């Protein structure tokens, strides 16, 4: 009896994706348009201007120190508890889990892996670019500043740009990037911008970042979102590769689990030509010793040597005429 293999949860997910292998027509993929290129160039120029203003210890650095001496967490201490919770919206772990859950549901509904792959690519770019800038410039934060009025650059810190702000821009902005309609994209873009700026201001309020850190973090996250259409071909190839590997793994598993059945061997007799086969006798062959042969009735009985039967004088061979016994009277 042949039974169907039991499907695992991963098999059911891929089966859901197989129902509609083509991407839905109403969901457009953002392209690198001229408008987006202009925004990317402007954001890149803003990024470079912030870095230069901090390096030369310009008015922006003096503003950083003024905000730090103001100590917002002491001026408005009554909202400290709210800011402590709100700043979690910029932490990498909680935000990635929440956004991945939402995009996973979108992948299930749209029958495509593109939302999750786009999130993975954006987070990878965030870790590489922001991490390299942090450790490359090595700026110390307000709590670890050493010289009043200095830019605190190249002193072994990892505060510039703000990772909380950049992470908030990317993780919440990817929802706007994956929106299915232009109206939803505009609304989600505004919400993600306000959320990310709020997270940046929360870090300034708590004294963990300079104001210039927040501005540079916002620009760093926006650069990733604006450049993401350049990675759409890579996302499409990755999705096709994953589905191809899934198909190979499924075929290999089904081949290993299927019972090996040997087809019956049918033996067909070869045609026999009756003219080439000699006629055979129904009797078994008789093998005779060489030499003259006599009939059984002509053979003389010979008493075997060592026979226990006594010799009989009146015994005659078979086939010969027996002599008449004398009649005795009595």
Topology:
Blueprint: H1 9-18, H2 34-55, H3 59-70, H4 72-75, H5 80-86, H6 92-110, H7 114-137, H8 163-177, H9 182-206, H10 211-227, H11 232-257
Helix pairs in contact: 2-10, 5-9, 6-7, 6-8, 7-8, 7-10, 7-11, 8-9, 8-10, 9-10
Give an account of the 3D structure.
By secondary structure, the chain is an all-alpha fold. The longest helix is centred in the last third of the chain and has 26 residues, at 232-257. It has helices at 9-18, 34-55, 59-70, 72-75, 80-86, 92-110, 114-137, 163-177, 182-206, 211-227, 232-257.
Key descriptive features of the protein:
330 residues; mainly alpha
The dominant shape is elongated
Indicate the radius of gyration in whole angstroms. 50 Å
SS class? mainly alpha
Q: pLDDT below 50 for ≥5 consecutive residues: which ranges?
A: 17-23, 326-330
Put the structure in a nutshell.
The protein has 330 residues and is mainly α. It contains eleven helices and no strands.
